[in-house]
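Morning - adenosine-5'-diphosphate inputs below, output right after.
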Amino acid sequence: MGQGLEILDRAELAPTSGYLGGKWRAGDARFAVKNPATGETLAEVADLGASDTEAAVSAATEAWHSWSRLTAKERSVLMRRWAGLILQHQEDLARIMTLENGKVLAEARLETALSAAYIEWGAEEGRRIYGDVIPSHRPDARLLVFRQSIGPVGVITPWNFPSAMLTRKAAAILGSGCSLVAKPAAETPLSALALAVLADEAGIPAGVFNIVPSKRAGEVGKVLTEDARIRAFSFTGSTAVGKELMRQCASTVKKTAMELGGNAPLLVFDDADLETAITGTMQSKFRNGGQTCICPNRIFVQDKIYDSYISGLAEQAAQIKVGNGLTEGMQQGPLINQAAVEKVLRQVENAKSLGGEILCGGDQGTLGGCFHMPTVIANANTKMEFACEETFGPVAPVVRFATEAEGVAMANDTEFGLAAYAFTQDLARAFRVSETLESGMVSLNAGVMTTEVAPFGGYKESGLGREGSHQGMDEFTETKYVQFAGL
Ligand code: ADP
């Protein structure tokens, strides 16, 4: 098997130009997209700038007027066709994702299926954006409340879920009658461009879905946040960048939806089912090599179950098959780049210097490059760097606690509040803990919770707004109150 885009069944799913107003734009400059498993260049992609982004905003603005006037059913037919094409090309889309992001094929296939599910959900929910009729405060009037599409939306997405982060936004944006201009992460523009090919084939009208690949994030971001024609801005990425983009959005008072960083706690109580807790930790911690914003970053385990939990966890983590994600059967691929590996190595060293004991992994093993071995650290404590900084790698630091109050207090001791996990069989405790954890999402007794039907989003500095579910549609609609008087 080859190592590049030649392995695709349909080569045209990997264009290297931007997609603006239904046309492909090559631009004047190019940037290299690398395969993190091999370090080889996969493609040279158009490096578009401010003027291209402005052209995309013009196209999106024009397209919004006609797209928003279609019936919700007409939009949903096209979106469902798009979802169908995504599923039909699941294998090629998964290969593209593995090649540019490094994640293993099995996970890339699941992400592709989730992407189709998001688009299908947006198509369905778009038909249920209901308004209100309010009993009037005066006898000669009737009061109506409409929900209207907000307008063209600026979108910036990260590399860790190159397809799902874009489709989750596109589902709500297109489903509510808006258009979008998206800048995918420079590490992973190919998955976004493949989605554009299929949107085009599905008949999504020109200008509704625009992709501006670029290495010049600041330049493109400035247009997407400051152009007055863009009415809402949706971002997934780091809290630091998100804060800056919110500041920029303030210049035109844009509605913002922000999915920012996390530092998820995972709590295992003495009364947990041991096997469930270990399986749940494995699924949530090591998925995508630990590079998800809802991966548990801090694991807190109660005294009595600590020893059996940590030995079981280390035993399973040591068995994870690490290698090139294209090789069938691999369970963990490389991290996204060298900087990511260096951050993980630094955090592991820091934990060791503060008394952490490495039970498995702890280094790059024999693979080197962008790989880091699955790692479990015993005797971890909250003075270690992971306590206040996202690891974004396959490292599970396990901290001991005594009482429920102590465990929950440590879990909440962070400015982030995206996801939290708890394992307990005590129903009263499950309720107490789920109510006191300060996070937008709590998963009890399971390691995987992402689905198109539930609201995804964070408390505190983890963000604003929700994606998925019917709540996700609210980010891209305006509320209009109309009084009909003199009746
Ligand atoms: P990550 O740590 O996941 O790379 P970032 O917040 O740096 O998180 O990146 C998320 C997305 O934000 C990417 O598409 C990236 O190109 C973009 N980005 C980074 N810096 C800026 C910026 N100053 N303005 C606009 N977009 C940016």
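Note: The domain at 5-260+462-482 is CATH 3.40.605.10 (Aldehyde Dehydrogenase; Chain A, domain 1).

O.
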